[in-house]
Amino acid sequence: MRKILFVLILFIVFDVHALYGQKDTSGLTHQKIKNFSFLHVSDTHVSPFFEMPEDFSKLRSYGCIRTIKDLNEVYMEPYNISVPKPSLVIVSGDICEFSVPGVTWEVNQKYYEGIDMPVYYIAGNHDNTWVSAASKFRDLYGGLNYSFDYGGCHFIGLNSATIQEPIQSFDEVTVNFLKKDLKKVDPRTPVFMYFHHPLYGGGFASKYDCDRILDLIRDHNVVLLMDGHGHSAIKHVYPGVDGVEGGSTFGDDPSKVGFNIVNIKDNKLYVAYKQSDNDNATKGLLEKELTEKSDYVKIAFASPKENEVIKKGNIQLRVGVSTSLSGLTGSSYELDDEHTGEMSQAGSHLIAEVDIDDLCNGAHFIRVKFTIDGREYQKSISFFVDKPGREDMGVAKWRYKMAGSSQSTPLIFNNTVYAGSNDGLLYAVNEEDGELEWTFNAGAEIISSPAVYQNLILFGAGNGEFYALTTMGKVKWSYDARAPVYSSPAVDEAGVVYFGNNKAELTALDADMGDVIWINKDARFSVESKPFATDKNVYFGSWDGYLYSVDKKSGETVWKKFGPKNIELETNNRYYGPADNGPLVTSDKVYITDRGYIAGIYLLDGTYEKAISKTCSAIGFSEDKTSLYLRSTSQPLSKTDLDGNVLWESSAVLGRFPVTPLEKDGKVFVCNNTGMFNAIDAETGKVLWRYQVTPKLYVMSGLSVNDGVVYTTGMDGYITAFSNN
Question: Phi/psi of residue 31, each to 5°?
Fold first, then answer.
């Protein structure tokens, strides 16, 4: 009887460990927590420089940062304690105003010169957009995500700033880094995490984007999340964890300029904001006891499972909870943040039947929320619905999960799908069944969409290398562009490949051998969009605010003109550069849209003719090149003639990403910001069928279509093949 009872107890223990994901901590070490303090600085916004300035005294944020040099003991007024000289500095993003062109990063480093403590940076949207700082972080820390230990605590820097996009997201590289890093940390160790964007703030694709981060840290002793972006010194209360925002080191009101002091003393945590013109930290943000471990209830989905594919019926939602439900006062679910329902108790589980008859086929997420003894808990998972036989919806043919997210439009060539990822790999996947054929490690993120010339796959990477691979994944040649290559290449009929880089160069190479034909260096800021080559000229936009026409033979600039928004403003503002959606050219006109979202028409001599949209984020040709498709930030997709006269408007509102609509075989294929795909009749604008590509995570890549099957990638890390057949 004792033996049977022992086996039963052992089974229950193993079952609990399996259900709630408890981990073996026997090989991990837990150090004693020291008393120490550190600074949390945010949003310095150092201006761009191409030459080192002679006088730093009037530069933005310089005065505030220099006060750090003389900091010693600091008095925290709200808590009536004095804290020791800070041991380190955390900078939670927006280090620079326009990323890192020229010597901007070197100027930033001068701000901290002589400050005898280590400075740890994380990127903000201003750092990763126009001239992404990803290569700087690779040099400093090995990547945009990193961690270190100090004083018995663990510090994790996470990237929330999308590369070459001003929108926040947690990509799969970041999610996978966090998973791997936390496995090395004893659950009792206090963990400080920092990133730029406040969780659940406007700009994330969905709440689920943030849920994925919080759900990963539940089992660990995460004591504080630090962020920036809002230029305010405030406290955040996230589900299960506290957060603070770091204010800003510049502004018109000196009383608001400063940074946070964070202090750990005798197992208590204190955070207060110190204005740079005040010797004391005067604004209290957080005071709390440090605990031995996380006391967050463990939650496990018994049904549906993570990434389960549902092909019929409803969802039988069943969730296990690792504590008594006697104090339960409410439980519910939220489906895609659009549908809600109540849950009921069944023993130690919470259950509900979730009606998904009207749910679009594709990727979705569900969040459970409940309250026990007055405290709220939650957890989310993603899943797929692929019910066949629905005329107005697609069905997945296959999915392949990469180790990173992708902003790279897939290339289909000779029965293989090629897609780049921000994990640094180019993936070659079988077009028919989605099986991996090979990967190629480019050494840095691949934002560029690959092109093909004869049997060579051409693309650039964030380490400045431009590659020509055989269809077996072998390097035929590579070229060092000396700066990140995020521009998708254009190849002309003569076998010349054109692409831009983050050093503001447009390069022309022989596509067969990789020999340099010419390099145009006339732009001032990065060239990230795809150029357009005609028989005589190459056209491209730059983040310096200009549209360029370059002689195809010599590489000399023929003309440069303001982008449409800057023409309207009658001044050059880099924020509105015509730089992230490449130009289109006909026999007599050039079309381009800019970050001011004005789509304009130019004549071939550079004369500006007119604006045809004030809300355009991307522009594309019809298949026969006699019409245009205009993607809008806020209005439905529209089709116009080549003079901009509207032919139809669809019902599909797509959003701000600079992703060009694609027409093929009488249909227009588009995907909105958060993954809702639409197939639209090219003649009438009627939506024919839809498919949800991601669980409301961003889709920043374009679409490819072959034999009626659509291929795309997303920030969820999947290459997805789907159709309406």
Answer: -90, 155
DSSP bridge partners of 207:
none
Whole-number Å distance between alpha carbons of 708 and 192: 49
- Rounded Cα distance between 412 and 435, Å, is 14
Q: What angle do CA 412, 625, 505 make, to 5 degrees?
A: 65
Cβ atoms within 10 Å, residue 248: 24
Quote the tokens at residue 318.
């069943």
DSSP secondary-structure letter at 296?
P
Of 182, 191, 188, nearest to 292 by C-alpha is 188
Q: Which domain holds residue 241?
A: 31-289
* Pairs from 300-307 (Cβ < 8 Å, separation ≥ 24): 300/19, 300/20, 300/21, 301/368, 301/379, 301/381, 302/19, 302/349, 304/366, 304/381, 304/383, 305/381, 305/383, 306/381, 306/382, 306/383, 307/382, 307/383, 307/384
For residues 437 and 413, is the Cβ–Cβ distance under 8 A?
no
Cβ distance 561 to 522 under 8 Å? Answer: no
What pLDDT, on the 0 to 100 scale, is given for residue 5?
36
d(CA 3, CA 580) in angstroms, rounded, equals 69
Helix, coil or strand: residue 634:
coil
What is the tally of structural domains in the chain?
Answer: 2
Same-domain status, 242 and 311: no
Q: Which stretches within 431-578 are classed as H helix?
A: 564-569
Final residue of a domain: which of 385, 413, 428?
385
Is 482 within a domain?
no
- What are the tens digits of pLDDT across the range 587-622? 999 999 999 999 999 999 999 999 999 999 999 999
Rounded alpha-carbon distances, angstroms, from residue 264 to 189, 622, 709: 13, 61, 57
Which among 289, 294, 341 is positioned nearest to 315, based on CA atoms?
341
Average pLDDT, integer, range 657-664: 98
Give the type of residue at 538: V
Residues 6+ apart with CB under 8 A from 61: 44, 45, 46, 111, 249, 250
d(CA 227, CA 632): 31
Mention every residue, 6+ apart, whose C-beta is less than 8 A from residue 196.
42, 92, 93, 94, 122, 123, 124, 125, 160, 161, 168, 227, 228, 229
Residue 133, CA atoms < 13 Å, CB-side half-sphere: 31
Q: What is the rounded radius of gyration, in angstroms, for the C-alpha atoms of the chain?
A: 27
- 252: which DSSP letter? S
Task: Read off the DSSP letter of residue 126.
Answer: H
Is residue 420 in a domain? no
The per-residue pLDDT for 20 is 44
Tell me, yes or no, whether 333 and 265 share the same domain: no
Flag whether pLDDT at 4 surpasses 90. no
